[in-house]
Design goal:
heterodimer, A: 266 residues, alpha/beta, Rossmann fold, 7-stranded parallel sheet, 10 helices, 14% strand, B: 247 residues, 47% helix
């Protein structure tokens, strides 16, 4: 189908409240976290098949799957360590055997090990670079050949406002998240003629458990630094991702979309 | 006044040689580090000596945190406190993502990005205590715009600037500046070895200025960033690419 035909069909479908014509297989790394859950829900509502990745033995997996089921959202779970290449290879081997080829990949898994550079250990550096940046290689490697062969694919890398502006206490995180954007732009060029787009989304502070666990007065300071005067809802991040993986967004590639309430503009 | 001590990693390479010689001309005491696998270091040092440059040189494996620690301690003992660090060492392992191996990825991440942590970590406390320091991280236009066949290199070089900005914030009140420079195509031996017809038909047309950069122009920018006049420049990413990519 030509690009315009696909867009028109999708317009028609969404106009009557139907799910999109093309149902895709989506893989979301870190899919059970705050932003990851919202992305899974949003893309499931769009009619896609969802696989949420989590660490092997993740203790809240069943609880999370139960909560999704309770809301009528059907998702699969896959266990693997995104910091480990072999673990990713075997995880995607399993995923393919259960749901088929992955068409949409959201690289969302990430950790923080915040500390001043003065006190940062080599371990703090390596852990964050491995989980947040090397993971993008480890995971994307498993799915991109299939996408180019089939002539359709979407890769969305979840970075951070702190990659764009730098953050005190986050030399490791800022480096890893900025690296993601470099990767996105290079890969976007390589697959640009194969129907595969690669983009970066850079959220600001989002109302996740992680952020809500910050002491109220510190959180108030953060909110005061955001021109919009509030945190983002995880659903607002999920909505950008949903747009980027749609047919309509087929011309957007190598872009880095800020979703930060005006916190940092460039 | 004692000369300021500047350590330049990858100081014997195409860019490195210009940086080291021009910084020496500008009055810095330049310490060169080179890869332990570099077998030509002796002839390079002799050649430099012939031109009147007596560089202290140390083999440093920038991929190894321990080796960086040991060698920086040795440098400080033998040459004095390190006031300026130019993180210039870098490698390429170009390959389309389709063909790129995990080793290609890891090698570039370690040498180009982790090295900035490994080296900067050794010198930052001293700079902060003495209330003066300059760190210049050499990235690339391809970190800014992305390059076909360089997912690893683009990721590492873009990562460098994230590191720069975060660290710049942490030490902004301590007289230490951290900046990134992003060179475009520079006329190093590596680039001038490209056949002339490819340079003329493929590379030069992308560069509005219509020529390659001179290594001396990169060195000049670094010397400016090291100066007192540049004390208000921190967390910046300065493009030096002849207009090839603007944003």
């Amino acid at each position: 189908m030509q690009v315009m035909d696909r867009i028109k069909e999708e317009e028609k479908a969404t106009a009557v409240g139907m799910s999109p014509v093309a149902r895709r297989v989506v893989f979301v790394t870190g899919g059970m976290g705050g932003i990851g859950s919202a992305i899974c829900r949003r893309l499931a509502l769009a009619g896609h098949t969802i696989v949420a990745g989590c660490l092997p033995g993740y203790e809240r997996k069943e609880e999370w799957l139960g909560a999704m089921r309770k809301d009528g959202i059907k998702v699969h779970a896959a266990e693997g360590d995104v910091a480990n290449f072999e673990s990713c290879a075997s995880m995607f081997h399993n995923v393919r055997s259960i749901v088929g080829n992955v068409d949409i990949l959201v690289n969302n898994a990430g950790i923080t090990r915040d500390s001043l550079f003065k006190r940062m250990s080599e371990r703090d550096w390596i852990d964050v670079i491995s989980t947040n940046l090397n993971s993008v290689f480890n995971v994307t490697r498993q799915v991109v050949d299939g996408m180019t062969e089939r002539g359709w694919g979407r890769i969305v890398n979840i970075s951070s406002v702190n990659a764009i502006k730098g953050q005190f206490g986050q030399t490791n995180y800022s480096a890893a998240k900025a690296g993601m954007a470099g990767f996105s732009k290079a890969l976007a060029q390589e697959v640009v003629k194969k129907g595969v787009t690669v983009n970066t989304v850079s959220p600001g502070y989002v109302e996740t458990d992680l952020v809500m666990a910050i002491r109220a007065e510190v959180r108030a300071q953060i909110v005061a630094s955001i021109p919009m005067g509030r945190l983002a809802k995880p659903e607002e991040i999920a909505a950008v991702v949903a747009f980027l993986v749609s047919e309509e967004a087929g011309y957007i590639t190598g872009a880095n979309i800020s979703v930060n309430g005006g916190m940092h503009m460039m | 006044m004692a000369k300021k001590v500047a350590v330049v990693t990858g100081g014997m390479g195409g860019l490195g040689e210009s940086i080291t010689t021009k910084m020496a001309d500008a009055g810095y005491q330049v310490v060169v580090t080179y890869s332990p696998s570099n077998t030509k270091y002796k002839s390079w040092l002799d050649e430099m000596k012939g031109k009147g440059y007596a560089f202290a040189a140390y083999p440093v494996d920038v991929v190894s945190f321990e080796d960086c620690g040991a060698k920086c301690a040795q440098i400080q003992k033998e040459c004095g406190n390190i006031d300026i660090l130019v993180n210039n060492a870098g490698i390429t392992r170009d390959m389309t993502f389709k063909k790129m191996t995990k080793n290609d990825w890891d090698a570039v991440m370690h040498t180009n990005l982790d090295s900035c942590f490994n080296m900067t970590k050794q010198v930052m406390d001293g700079m902060v205590e003495r209330n003066w320091g300059r760190v210049i991280n050499v990235a690339s236009v391809n970190g800014q715009k992305g390059a076909f066949g360089q997912t690893n290199y683009s990721a590492a070089k873009a990562g460098i600037h994230g590191f720069t900005k975060a660290l710049a914030l942490e030490v902004a009140k301590k007289g230490v500046t951290i900046n990134t420079i992003s060179p475009g195509y520079i006329g190093t031996k590596m680039v001038t070895a490209i056949p002339k017809e490819i340079l003329d038909s493929k590379i030069l047309p992308q560069i509005p200025v219509g020529r390659l950069g001179n290594p001396e122009e990169i060195a000049g920018l670094i010397i400016y960033l090291c100066s007192e006049e540049a004390a208000f420049v921190t967390g910046a990413n300065i493009s030096i690419n002849g207009g090839q990519h603007m944003y």
